[in-house]
Amino acid sequence: MESTRQKKVARLIQKELGDVFQREGQIFARGSMITVTVVRVTPDLSHAKVFLSIFPSKNKQEVIETISEDVKKIRHELGKRVRYQLRTIPEIYFYIDDTLDYVENIENLLKP
Length: 112
Fold this sequence. Notes:
This protein has one domain (4-110): 2-Layer Sandwich (GMP Synthetase, Chain A, domain 3). 53% of the residues lie in helices and 21% in strands. Helix 1 packs across helix 3. By secondary structure, the chain is of the alpha+beta class. The protein has a 3-stranded mixed sheet with strand order 1-2-3.
């Protein structure tokens, strides 16, 4: 069960990372749109799992690898944005959020 503080920090990170990807997303993913869908923060606020939805979905793995290589730059940008709200910036780990692909697969199976 997440505490109120975890939820607030997760929402703050989600909002700010979404803004970072909106403004500088073309650096990490040329021709793809990146959406931060979920952020989960550990109880000690030292690690954050960030789930990304990437459209179009044909080169997801390449985009995640590119983003993972630039995690220091992204964390630094996040730190500049939340420096007055958080004492320490959590380590960030990026994962692919494949729920949209799952929903599309289910819809295709249910079509007559």
